[in-house]
Amino acid sequence: MPAFKPFDTSQGRNPAPLIFPCPAFPFTIDAMKPAFQTASRVEKVRYEIRGALARRARELEQQGHDILKLNIGNPGEFGLRTPETMRRAVVRNLQYSEAYGPQTGIFPAREAVAMQYQARGLTDTRFDQVFIGNGVSELVDLVLRSLLEPDDEVLVPAPDYPLWTAAVVLNGGRAVHYPCRPENGWVPDLDEIRRQITPKTRAMVVINPNNPTGAVYPEAVLQGLADIASEHNLILFSDEIYDAICYDEARFVPMAPLATDTLCISFGGLSKVYRACGWRVGWAVFTGTLERAQDYMLAVEKLAALRLSANVPGQWAVQTALGGYQSIADLVGRGGRLHDSRQAIIDAVTQSRFLELVAPMGAMYAFPAVKADAIPDFDDHRFAAELLEQKHILIVPGSSFNIEQRNHFRITLLPEADQLVQAFEKIEDLLEELAEEPERVCLTT
Prior knowledge:
The chain is α/β, with parallel strands linked by helices. Strands 4-10-9-8-7-5-6 form a seven-stranded mixed beta sheet, sandwiched between helices. The protein folds into two domains: 48-79 and 330-436, Alpha-Beta Complex (Aspartate Aminotransferase, domain 1); 84-323, 3-Layer(aba) Sandwich (Aspartate Aminotransferase, domain 2). It has 14 helices and 16 strands.
């Protein structure tokens, strides 16, 4: 940003307002007034998935460059469309979608989710245990806002989907990250988690299948997490938005049937499995010791009422989605689009001089690492910035997912396999250049 010119006060006139050269948000401000306050808690929030690199990518697009966006799991951007039956369900029910809906969601959607949990073994699950929200993101905020007092602690995996850490911080809590390490297949260590619990710990977050690593947790580990939560009277928040996206021999095991001795809140939605991100339909299912959670559930409902209702048109697709043909199986099975893209990444990393990877077994991401001895002092943010500037590929630095290591990055599996092959050729080229010039400084930092 260029420096501002001093005011010309030689004629005795009041100074004109300054114009900030921000291409996205042009505005003026009286130069004699201070900048508006920004809440300090926002400074603690990290969300590089749509942060500075994504803004720079938009600038490059405006300059005429084609950017391969590997930063977001957004199926519609890569031609993976919402099933036709779901679109028809929305259209058929538009006439019933013009009024506000119930704050907890329309009955057909809630009943369909409850029936899914009945099929998972929780045969007494009822529709009134289900809350529908504007995506899982909104529900994460509601359940944490209804729970946390200042400085209460929530156990969050590291790496995590950074929404969880951000929502804890924004609601006055403290995120305590339990490490999930690549040498352990990105699966958490139960003993480490036990050592991190304090009298201030209120809840534990589990993300399975995992974003960003693609780990799918074994049943024994999930049972251990449920047992820890029960022993310490913790609420379990189980983020299962990728529940049906598993590869090869991996098998998704839902948390709720294992966590009957504490309160378990399981999250799912239409965004990923059903490729309907823009419809913003998610759900939270309360199971377990509900008799001890009545006040808490009423608090969540009160906050849901403040925003009136979730998106009504999209809710009409839930029953069709859960009860219809599960086309995601065609994408993740052998020969399917996501399976082939995943394999392309595994093969590219295997052939690389610089990269290593714990093969993702679920979700729609890979989390490669640059080998520690390949490029000394490698920095994930500098690498991501230079990859964008030089190769026009947008990735997410691994440290954005609340880990200390700075040698990982996350990419989505959503493009076609050949696009990913070409992307990794460019990634390898840049890594070659950096290995030859270890003192090289990224042009954008």
